[in-house]
Amino acid sequence: MLFQDLNLNPAIIKAIEDQKYKKPTPIQEKAIPSVLSGKDLLGCAQTGTGKTAAFAIPILQKLSKDSSNNKIRALILAPTRELATQISESFKTYGQHLDVQTGVVFGGVTPKRHIKVLKREPSILVATPGRLLDLVEKGYADLSSVEFFVLDEADSMLDLGMKEDVKNIISKLPKVRQNMLFSATMPKEVSKLVNSILINPVKIEVESKSLNENGIRQQVYFVEEPDKTSLLLQLLKDKTFESVLVFARTKKKADKISKAINIANIRSKAIHGDKNQSERQKALELFKNKEARVLVATDVAARGIDIDKLSHVVNMDIPNVPEVYIHRIGRTGRAGMGGTAISFCSNQETTFLKDIEKLQGKSIEVVKSHP
Ligand code: ADP
Ligand code: MG
Fold first, then answer.
1. Which of 14, 15, 246, 297 could make a disulfide contact with 302, Cβ separation 3.0–4.6 Å?
2. pTM for this one?
3. What is the dihedral of CA 279, 283, 289, 293, to 10 degrees?
4. At 146, is the secondary structure helix, strand, or coil?
5. Closest Cα to atom 25, ligand 1: which residue?
């Protein structure tokens, strides 16, 4: 199937062509017609499957049909400021030849800037829950005309303790609206949310199993905690490690690792929740422009970030929740390109490794020859 077969506005087709997308991804192929036909949607898929366009394109199509109203007509909630920014950029990209405004609001910057954003009366608003609620309660944002509601990365939103804010926001939306919910995993809490928000949704599932066909090579190195950083430095000597995202368990560790890499004369930046918004954006930019070879991140800071052409993901530790591992390695090999995910496993972490292998239904290649 081609995008041309989906009955889309030629202005949207043109924007997709500008992006050089050849054809819709499987989730887009199913989601776009369902959303266009007015149905609620439940998308369960790992990162890198093209979920953003799966909801952004049909929403833009519907809004483009009548752009008369200057209220917020589409609301997209995302767990982090980076992700919210990224989604709003996608709406702007796919909607660049349309007359539809997109705004974005998130915590960590002065509300003044957001009040200005809202004064421009965007019909599409992308937001993190806390800040949006704040703006609604102060009377700056009006949600009474929302027709399309999207909850992206619902599982991480709940992990981050945003449940009450999300529920509160939903209670302020019109009862009749079209809903879309995306989540990489389906824990009980998310299913409950699904049942309370979605009405007869079309369910689209792209299984974690598809990782195998994704061209991501997975490797594990057995190494004890104190030696992990020197092993990383050793690996980074290899120039094929072009663009490396390193995951650290804590903010402190992320800073420490990034510092050690810089001392070894390799440009590296760290991103985590203690860094302010402009520091985080700047680090991300440097990494995207290939000015920094390494980005060290905590899970929360890296959620949903989309970076093209990531050659390697390195896990300094083995996550105790297997789904977190899946999230992490999904950062490489995006949109069908090859990539390598390397994990450092200490003696204490072997049970976590087993859980991951069980979830994927296959064992991970062990690299034995290393210092
Ligand atoms: P997800 O939300 O599932 O993690 P994204 O929406 O962030 O995925 O998309 C991942 C990457 O794939 C982005 O760089 C996006 O530009 C690219 N992409 C999306 N749709 C297509 C497509 N149909 N063809 C090629 N690349 C695509
Ligand atoms: Mg996404």
1. 297
2. 0.68
3. 160
4. coil
5. 21
Pocket of ligand 1 (CB under 6 A): 21, 24-25, 28, 47-53, 306, 308, 334-335
CA 310–ligand 1 middle distance (angstroms): 14
Tell me which residues have their CB within 5 A of the ion that is ligand 2.
Answer: 51, 304
In CATH terms, the superfamily for domain 209-366 is P-loop containing nucleotide triphosphate hydrolases (3.40.50.300)
CATH architecture of the domain 3-206 equals 3-Layer(aba) Sandwich (3.40)
pLDDT of 213 higher than 50: no
User: Which pLDDT tens digit goes with each residue over 238-267?
Assistant: 988 989 999 999 999 999 999 999 999 999
- pLDDT tens per residue across span 138-184: 999 999 999 999 999 998 898 888 999 999 999 999 999 999 999 98
Pocket test residue of 3, 52, 82, 204 for ligand 1, highest count of atoms within 8 A of CB: 52
| DSSP codes joined into one string, 169-190 | HHHTS-SS-EEEEEESS--HHH
User: Which of 289, 74, 325 minimizes the C-alpha distance to 179?
Assistant: 74
Q: Quick one: pLDDT at residue 329?
A: 86
Domain boundaries, given as residue ranges, for the chain: 3-206, 209-366
